[in-house]
Design brief:
- By secondary structure, the protein is of the alpha+beta class.
- The protein has one domain.
- Helix content is 57%, strand content 17%.
- It is built from four helices and two strands; from the N terminus they run H-H-E-E-H-H.
- It has a two-stranded antiparallel ribbon.
């Protein structure tokens, strides 16, 4: 068998990672995690210097306490993997 070599177009990859559709995709996953975590958790996204990114965070004191006791955000990541 012959060896296959793949050379990525760095500018093209960067363009894809910073595209509005990529932001929409990561925001969708973040919202799934926030929804699975429950009330008091919110999601936000932005296009940074190198790529689109999203975060899920606690918005209320009750959510902060819930996350500290039960590790809710970490446990909710599975919701994004399934969806």
């Amino acid at each position: 068998m012959s060896k296959v070599t793949v050379k990525l177009n760095r500018q093209g990859v960067a363009k894809i990672l910073k595209s509005p559709s990529m932001r929409k995709a990561v925001e969708k996953r973040a919202r799934q995690i926030a929804t699975a975590a429950g009330p008091g958790y919110e999601a936000d996204s932005m296009i940074g210097k190198n790529r689109a990114r999203a975060s899920v965070y606690t918005k209320t004191f009750q959510a902060r306490r819930d996350n500290a006791k039960r590790n809710t955000l970490l446990r909710s990541i599975g919701a994004a993997r399934r969806g």
